[in-house]
Every structure is written in structure tokens, then in C-alpha cells.
Structure to design on (80 residues):
């Protein structure tokens, strides 16, 4: 699940740098319709929730399911 959300955020935000060119050539994209600030804010929230979910999965899972340091510490470090 983590990678699905992560890849979705990448797919949605990959066109953000091209929004000015899209507008200049009347290309209708998600970014030109919704706006870069709203997409960036939504993507940030999605990633933060995704990392929080991964951390909580490490904290709340049965002992031995995951190695705690990489699961909790790794996701916490990357979330910052």
C-alpha cells in the first residue's frame, strides 16, 4: 500500500513544473485545472499520512512482523 500511494503522488505531481507551458499552449491538465498550490498541498498531506501509516504499522504490528528500526525509524526519518 505504501508504494501505491507514493507512486500515485509522483504521477500526480510530475507535471507541476510544466504547468506554465501547458497554459501557454492551452493543454488541459490536472495541474492547470486545479492549480499547483492545491496539488502540492494535497500531495504533501498524502505523503505525510502515508508515512504516518507506515510508522503506525510498525508500532502496532505483532512482534517479529517487521524489524522495528527500519520500519519505524526509516519512515520517520524520511517523513521529515
Amino acid at each position: 500500500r505504501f508504494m501505491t500511494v507514493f507512486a500515485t503522488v509522483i504521477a500526480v505531481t510530475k507535471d507541476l513544473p510544466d504547468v506554465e507551458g501547458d497554459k501557454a499552449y492551452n493543454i488541459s491538465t490536472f495541474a492547470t485545472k486545479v492549480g499547483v498550490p492545491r496539488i502540492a498541498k494535497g500531495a504533501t498531506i498524502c505523503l505525510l499520512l502515508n508515512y504516518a501509516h507506515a510508522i503506525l504499522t510498525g508500532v502496532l504490528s505483532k512482534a517479529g512482523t517487521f524489524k522495528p528500526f527500519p520500519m519505524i525509524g526509516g519512515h520517520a526519518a524520511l517523513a521529515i
